[in-house]
């Protein structure tokens, strides 16, 4: 049991160190001939957007697409690097004994307690055909239900 606890403590120290390393990650992507560069943090949140020389040659819609494209590329890169950093956690977890190995007769609940894989998150724009299959956000320009005005008795 002492060996198992030591292994658990080592695993927790490893996880803490890897989480710190992951938290420091950033990734950048540059598109449209070095005209648009986006940098994201470890969570994929945009932390910097830079426009290079020649940006004025692009239309607003092209700039918007370029920013989106660069942000998606940078987010994918930081996610890949995060998985690489956290890979030792999975490897160490597989080395630890299972509860069924320690307690005789204990049923193996690993499949029942496993966290399901999350669905793939879409990177499609809000009104694209890919998104129209599910819930649709009417957006800020949609007509809103009429509410009472300042003369309404609810005031």
UniProtKB/TrEMBL annotation:
Residues 89-155 are annotated as: Disordered. The lineage of its organism: Bacteria, Bacillati, Actinomycetota, Actinomycetes, Mycobacteriales. GO terms for molecular function: DNA binding. This is YbaB/EbfC family DNA-binding protein. It comes from the Bacteria. It comes from Nocardia terrae. Keywords: DNA-binding. The keyword DNA-binding applies. InterPro entries: YbaB-like_sf, YbaB/EbfC. The keyword DNA-binding applies.
């Amino acid at each position: 049991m002492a060996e198992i606890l030591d292994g658990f403590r080592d695993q927790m120290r490893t996880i803490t160190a890897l989480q710190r390393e992951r938290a420091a990650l950033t990734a950048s992507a540059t598109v449209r001939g070095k005209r648009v560069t986006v940098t994201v943090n470890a969570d994929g949140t945009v932390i910097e957007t830079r426009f290079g020389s020649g940006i004025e040659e692009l239309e607003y819609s092209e700039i918007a697409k370029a920013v989106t494209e660069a942000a998606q590329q940078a987010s994918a890169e930081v996610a890949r690097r995060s998985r690489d950093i956290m890979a030792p956690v999975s490897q160490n977890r597989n080395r630890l004994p299972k509860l069924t190995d320690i307690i005789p007769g204990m049923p193996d609940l690993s499949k029942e307690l496993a966290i399901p894989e999350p669905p793939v998150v879409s990177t499609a724009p809000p009104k694209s055909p890919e998104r129209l299959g599910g819930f649709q956000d009417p957006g800020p320009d949609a007509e809103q239900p009429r509410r009472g005005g300042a003369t309404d008795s609810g005031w």
